[in-house]
Amino acid sequence: MVILAIVLNVLVSFPKCLFQEWPLQPNRPLHGVAFAAEPANKYVETILQSFLPRELLSANLLPARLPEFTVVLGASKDHKEVIKVNFTFGNVTGLDRIKRKGDCSGPKSYKREISINCTLSLFPLQSAHRTIVRNSTYTNVGKVQAALTEVLVDLQIVGKAQGSDVLVRKFDVGRMDTLTPVFSNIPAYLRGDLPYLQNAYKKHVLNNLYGILSQKYADALGRTLAGIHMPRSILPRL
């Protein structure tokens, strides 16, 4: 009878223990977090490294073309006439240099969907244009280049519960900036206008690159994901 009482006591208390342990307390360490992130990490890395570059190439993003533009400089003490500086043959290189920054979260299930969230890093990127300086007497051809600082992207991928019909739900491009643009073969009489030209160039590059990443690049990633199943949602091991 004593043994039977002990067994009954264990059976009664065992489910109670389970309910006390779940849901987990926020401050409890999840020893399985690294394990849980691994399928998401591997999935995203495979997409970025093995499949995305071909789609970027197909979308003419390796390199990505930047539009031409012109800066008009009014007469000054250094040059007595209006000068036009044309920026042509522009591009940005390095858009295939994308990787995850830290661990991804997921896959998580919610309302018959599974999702993966990641922060992505694009670095290093480089922009370049040919410059043509024209005045009434001659034309000067040069070049300008600028290195971009690291670009971070907040990515969310979602799919159906079985992992199919994968799409990009969020592709938020973070703050972008460049280092000081470097002009080569610029006429000496334009040295005083150099800060103005550098600012105009930075603005042109950043505005256009933001549009490229938010639209063409995000679309290319979406096409890459189509047909590639996501890993199923899993619970962390405790």
TrEMBL record:
Keywords: Signal. Residues 1-19 form the signal peptide. It comes from the Eukaryota. This is Secreted protein.
